[in-house]
Amino acid sequence: MAEQERSNTVPILVALIGFAGVAWSAVWTAWSNSHELEVQRLKYQQDLVLEAMRTGDPDQAAENLRFLLDAGFLTENASAIRKYLENRPSGTGRELPPR
User: Please, where are the H alpha helices in the chain?
Assistant: First the structure.
């Protein structure tokens, strides 16, 4: 009887180890995907800032950034961007040449 119990335990143990491997793989994949989404979100916000600044005019660039902030498109470093916009004298600031 003890031999039969042992022979029943081995397949269960193998199945549990296999299940643990599959579960770990699923957790790893989910974490990896969420990390990739965060990277893509940050890149999207950076691209928005660059395009907002492609005006050749610092006042228009500032207005574009303010719009993106107010619309909720920029969440990363939003407080620093708002502070920059509040302290920026008119006619000064950063801008990029238009394409």
Answer: 2-53, 58-70, 78-87
C-alpha distances (whole Å) from 78 to each of 5, 10, 17, 29, 72 are 63, 57, 47, 30, 9
Both tokens of residue 43?
């890149």
Tokens 């500032």 sit at which residue? Answer: 62
Q: What is the pLDDT of residue 36?
A: 86
Q: What span, in angstroms and rounded, lies between the C-alpha atoms of 65 and 52?
A: 6
Whose structure tokens read 């969420």?
34
Contacts of 45 (CB under 8 A, 6+ apart): 73, 74, 75, 76
DSSP 38: H
CA 29 to chain CA mean position, Å: 16
Average pLDDT, the chain: 88
